[in-house]
Amino acid sequence: MTIAKKIKLSISQSSMIRKMFDEGIILKKKYGADKVYDFSLGNPNAEQPEEFKRELINLAAENIPLKHGYTPNAGYPETRQAIAQKINKTTGLKMDADHVIMSCGAGGALNVILKALLDPNDEVIVLKPFFVEYPFYIGNFDGIVKYAATKTDFSLDIEVIAEAISNNTKAIIINSPNNPTGKVYGEKEIAELSRMLLEKGRVLGKTIYLISDEPYAEIVFDGVTVPSVLKAYPNSIIAYSYSKTLSLPGERIGYIAVNPQIHEVGDLISALILCTRILGFVHAPALMQRIVARLQDVAVDVKVYQKKRDMLCDGLTKAGYQFEKPQGAFYLFVQSPIPDDVTFVQMLLKKNILVVPGSGFGGPGYFRIAYCVDDATIINSMDGFAEAIKECK
Amino acid sequence: MTIAKKIKLSISQSSMIRKMFDEGIILKKKYGADKVYDFSLGNPNAEQPEEFKRELINLAAENIPLKHGYTPNAGYPETRQAIAQKINKTTGLKMDADHVIMSCGAGGALNVILKALLDPNDEVIVLKPFFVEYPFYIGNFDGIVKYAATKTDFSLDIEVIAEAISNNTKAIIINSPNNPTGKVYGEKEIAELSRMLLEKGRVLGKTIYLISDEPYAEIVFDGVTVPSVLKAYPNSIIAYSYSKTLSLPGERIGYIAVNPQIHEVGDLISALILCTRILGFVHAPALMQRIVARLQDVAVDVKVYQKKRDMLCDGLTKAGYQFEKPQGAFYLFVQSPIPDDVTFVQMLLKKNILVVPGSGFGGPGYFRIAYCVDDATIINSMDGFAEAIKECK
User: Fold this and answer.
1) Do the Cβ atoms of B264 and A2 come within 8 Å?
2) Which chain A residues are Cβ-neighbours of B10 within 8 angstroms?
3) Contacts with A71 from chain B: Cβ below 8 Å
4) Which is nearest to A335 in space by CA: A321, A347, A348, A325?
5) Chain B, nearest residue to A274 by Cα
6) B44: closest CA among B159, B209, B259, B215?
7) Helix (H, G, I), strand (E, B), or coil: what is residue A257?
8) Is it true that B5-48+300-390 and B51-293 share their CATH fold?
9) Angle at B140 between CA B135 and CA B146, to 5 degrees
10) What is the ipTM of this complex?
11) Sheet harboring A236-241: ordered strands across?
């Protein structure tokens, strides 16, 4: 009868990952940080672009009235205008500043979107494997998670998604490039998804929102681009973050972009602004709003991550691991050599290698490697990976 | 069947304040910003302390590994340690870093605290007049707001609060210095509240949490200090913000401080950290966490606000207005010369004076002046205030 029952339950459930994290700290103390190969966290290690560093230094010294004052709940109009223009340039859409609401990263954006949309018991479709926070975000607003599996190569299974849709479906969340798989959904897949959602919406007489979680949109390799869901589907909303694009996840800056053609666009925008306010975000951090306005065409050097991906994929292939080579983000979702991924993760832990069991992402039989780490960590971990798979044979 | 019903209702209800805000924009366009006396927003206009400006410039240029990376969900240990030490120094308590969780301002802190505590239909006591966001924050987690009036001088009415407590009471929120009244609760009042809460808790066999919302703790005049609720009551939690202390509400930085003696302290801290994460805050902005760690003994020049208070109080007294002279924050809660405060606020609007009706704060018959504005705004508004009250006679 003290803390909330739901939260008490969540604490006990999340204790396994917590335990992994704590074991990592113990290992690092015991063996030294350079002897522990920590692939457990998606904390991007690429340098911030020089333009960012320069703008931060400039802005720190600039004299602007109410420089650190409250901004409008939706964010500075100039920042939102710059983002709308960027989106219009790449998509040919006609967004304006009103369709953009600044957020505390993609995590903040998703909570605001879901609070604006969900009545209790509304269903939200989540694709397996999924980012671990989605079920929490949906649960925050008493929504119900409906899982739909992706294909074995992690691409969209339109039929399976269609089967998961019911009269209570309010939205579907997609995440491309994907955490934990690195999968990028192609233009054809997105078009098929869009057709199916429109048809389902027509038959059920309701709007099904497509929420596209895109913090890794700029982290793509091999010349791949992420197709625009805004172009493909009218009832689409983007949750974006600069965390990975500019390598500053700690500064909590991102945005919500609403399709100008979305159902009841005015009410939805008002709802998103209200929810930004009443959830206690109030608005996104002011200084970072000013900086990102100036850096719409800037991104970290993606080749850094592509090189790491290639090193890792080559090494693991040689050692006998199996996986889909990803075209984006900085995650590799690898098949566990034994069916029980939690046990295999423990085996890797004995080699001082920290990864996360796929079970935590709704993908048992796999484990996730976050390769946004020093090259040395990748190189020096290879012996341990090779030994662990050998021990399974 | 599109956006959430509860949110749709909230949008329609909040449209009156929105309308005021829009009217202000129209007035400023029509007459020029210097001819409109905008006392509607608590956007602090004091300069940031020099120490803050210097640290921001220093930090912008510093080379720190993962400078803008994710921090722990609770925040940097060094920052939390610095805050715990500051609290210990002023209270004699024995807090450590674990009892402090960094937050996105006090708004973020309150949402995290309420999510951690509230089961559906738990009651939270709110004192009238109140900060307009409390009912939203409590409603976010399906809590029920129970209002309790303060005395005519806005001090605590312990008997009225005691009557509002039921078997469903989970917490009470107090806010001192107060928005909208500027009232500071004295040591004796806090001690009486504490005694009553302990006694009620004993009789009902439950914990009643005291949530103290303290963004104005440093904005006090006439040598007054804000008594420590942590010293007075074991089951106390502080929601703090640097928004006013360092004049940076736009940067969204504050903290939650948990009484080391609080009921089930370990579980509560875990719950607060989890809720920070799953509500999408993830953690407080990294750069600001580093800065406030270095500025624990720094605050804006409070004399600036005290001078404005005195100018405003003198002018309004001469014009015939009645009010309690406040000892903190930067608000004055003035009796409307006519019972209908909304009508009187409209009369002031005709003099190009923007204030907020007390009805919005659960204090009808009053209006709120936020005097964190240029001295010129105060001086030049005085004729309008004098004319408006004359028209009521």
Assistant:
1) yes
2) 274, 278
3) 250
4) A321
5) B11
6) B215
7) strand
8) no
9) 35
10) 0.96
11) A100-103, A254-258, A236-241, A209-213, A169-175, A123-128, A144-149
B322 touches chain A (CB under 8 A): no
For residue B119 the two structure tokens come to 């089961």
B5-48+300-390: which CATH architecture?
A: Alpha-Beta Complex (3.90)
A368/A333 Cα distance (integer angstroms): 5
A130 CB neighbour count, 10 Å cutoff = 24
State the nearest Cα–Cα gap between B77 and chain A, in angstroms: 14
Three-state secondary structure call for residue B209: strand
Question: Where does B51-293 sit in CATH, by number?
Answer: 3.40.640.10
> What percentage of chain B carries pLDDT values higher than 90?
89
Considering only CB atoms, which chain B residues are within 8 Å of A110? 280
Q: How far apart are CA A26 and CA A33, in angstroms?
A: 10
Domain locations in chain A?
A: 5-47+301-390, 51-293
Of the residues B11, B102, B236, B252, the best mutation for testing chain A's interface (the one with the most A CB atoms within 10 Å of its CB) is: B252
CATH number attached to the domain at A5-47+301-390: 3.90.1150.10
- The token pair at A282 is 């109030």
Strand ranges, E, within chain A = 37-38, 100-103, 123-128, 144-149, 169-175, 209-213, 236-241, 254-258, 331-335, 353-354, 356-357, 366-370
- What pLDDT score does B24 carry? 79
The pTM of this model reads 0.97
pLDDT in tens, B300-316: 999 999 999 999 999 99
Please tell me if residue B44 touches chain A, with a CB cutoff of 8 Å: yes
Q: Give the minimum alpha-carbon distance from A299 to chain B in angstroms, rounded to a whole number.
A: 15
- Kindly give the interhelix angle for A302-319 and A375-390, rounded to the nearest 10 degrees: 20
Residues of chain A with pLDDT > 90, as a percent, come to 89
Quick one: which of A127, A126, A130, A132 has its CA closest to A150?
A127
pLDDT of residue B16: 57
